[in-house]
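Standup notes
- DV: blocked on the single-chain target, sequence here:
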Amino acid sequence: MKRLLILSVVLMAILPLRAQDNTNDNYIWPEDPAVLEKLDRWQDLKFGVLMHWGLYSVPGIVESWNLCNEDWIVRPEGSTYEGYKQWYWGLSKEFNPVRFNPEQWAQVFRDAGMKYMIFTTKHHDGFCLFDSAYTDFSIAKAGPFKGNPKADAAKYVFDAFRAQDFLVGAYFSKPDWHCDGFWNPYYATPNRHINYKVDMHPEWWEKYVTYTQNQLRELTGGRYGKLDILWLDGGWISGEQVGLPEILPEARRVSPGLLCVDRTIGGPNENYQTPEQNVPARQLNHPWESCITLGNDWGWVKDQPYKSARRVIGTLAEIVAKGGCMVLGVGPTPEGLIEERAAVILREIGQWLGRCGEAIYNTRITPDYNDGRLWFSAAKDGKTLYAVYALPDGETLPETLEWSGNLPKGKVTLLNNGKKLKTSVKNGKVTVTLPKNLSQEPLALRIDL
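- DV (later): unblocked, structure below
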């Protein structure tokens, strides 16, 4: 176990180097009015959560990737590749979240000020967190949790978050390394891709495609209620390859306006873009979302370092000023809870948003969006600007804030405490004087135009 945890830390150091900035200027706006309406609603929300939970949670290691035979992967010293795979698959017999409490998850994330959620129904390892009729490799059938009344875990997760008024999204990996139509045991598995030539084994490919289509239809066909987001991962396989153009219209008859995120693929089925573990360098005019972890990893890892509330708020302010939303990765424990150590940080973020969220939620971009540590956004009616001062860890607030442009025509209010600030404007430069004895936290200003 110690070796696995050490190796997980090594992987966590490597993974950010492989972060994906899949933004581009070739975004295709949807034509479906219901999708456009849902996109606008989603852009109002700004802050969500992405939950990775599965076999990798049992030992607390990097999700799925150790199964992939690529040169950056680190497995326990002395282990064989096939031996490791069999050990990993065997975790399905140990995954027993006896304290599974999706209502606790939803309450923690609501208290954090989050407004939408994405739950991992299946990662690349193929283990399903929903009760699929097409495999026994699932939480509902494979291990000791299968007799639990909540064994169809995804259903209870989605229901718990709907009850807290979240937009509900399903993460689904198109690649499936457990499916022998994707990685056929006749051949070795040299990398993340299918391990055979399709023209030599079209029947294997057809098996994988049919399997994937069946599972997508299970998730989107109504059994799990109406979904708001279908978040498809694994960009080395496109949605078109698995029949998404046929499946998506069916899904939208059940869930009108369903947002599809065929991430990193581009085209009409990527309704918003998803840079991973980074923030784009510039402001973007189309819908996008930075997916960033609270710790170093997507799933739960014991004692992993977490980002501070200050850092998360500062990153959120930058993302909002550049026109995006932020989805924060927080993994439930193998027992089925959000650990208190993470919940403390999330509550601190939520308390700040409770006072200052006007500067985050329901805002849109403004041309002059950054000056030093100040990040600017605008109310949707254009009559009010907002500024968030991102206070770095280990630093204290200055006595004044200064910026150029974005000149106030009315008062400047500190949302943290509701007080009007002393403001001066000279030669196109604004200076506001901060009150004494403020809490050492990011600041949010309302600027009346």
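- Follow-up: The first helix runs from residue 2 to 14.
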